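Pipeline run #58 for the internal structure catalog. This entry was flagged by the ingest filter as a single-chain record with no existing model, so it goes straight to prediction. Upstream metadata was stripped on purpose; only the residue string is passed forward. Reviewer on rotation: M.T. Logging verbosity set to normal.
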Amino acid sequence: MARQIVDDGANADELAKALGFSRAAVFSWAQQYRDGGIEALRAKPIPGRPKKMTDQQADQIYTILCTKTPDQMQFDFQLWTRWLVRDLIARLFGISITEQAVGRMLRRWGMSPQRPTTQATQRDEAKVMRWKTEQFPKIRAEARQVGATVYFGDEASVRTDHHGGATWAPVGETPVISRTGDRKSVLMLSAVSAQGKLHFMLQQGGSVDSKVFIEFCRKLLQDDGGKVFLIVDNVSYHDSKAVRRFVAGTDGRLRIFFLSPYAPDTNPDEWVWNNVKTAQIGRKMMGVDPSE
């Protein structure tokens, strides 16, 4: 259009009306063409508009967020935030975007801010995987051969004034939960099989040691009636001399195996007491006998 006006002498007013542009815009384009030729009319980047990531760059950021923590990317933090993601993009690609834009991008990717679980830095993922894929299948196969039941065991403690979970309340008004001044503790020991068979023992006060654990094992053998393969974590009293003597005296009815170190998530019995604390005891009033 600018070329028609300048080179062919076309009427600018008629072109503006026919094409739906303002007269000022048409004359401006014509002047730009006179001054700089066709190159002067080519679209230019809008000043201030941030450069966008390519699909490949976006995939790279998504993969990093899903597989690495900030400290693994040489940041001094362990939790991803919008501003850290912004800094990561700037560091890797030289692209500057706002935190708000990062937030919209993360939501488009199906991400949301979540409270992370924690695990020990001593945890060895290779050992955990070997336990899952090699050791546990061997334990299960041997149990089938000798007719033993495989149990996962765990212990926990809860106070009588414990409460867990959340409750609805008006915004800005923190609810108050009534409780007694009693602060007794209850020890809880349990073993759960792959079939969901649960055995448990409760004891008021004290702490779990070899003596308490042996008593639980004795009751488990009595209730099960057969051979028991018990899988527990690596706490010291599970492998004490007293426990070994007790196991040796069961004539092969009880064998104890150990989980990979620092891997409580591989023990399904963990969920038993987590559920008790958060969904059962943690949401109920625990009555206390005044005479106690």
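catalog note: The chain has three domains: 2-41, 55-108, 126-162+182-283.
catalog note: The radius of gyration is 34 Å.
status: ready for reviewer M.T.
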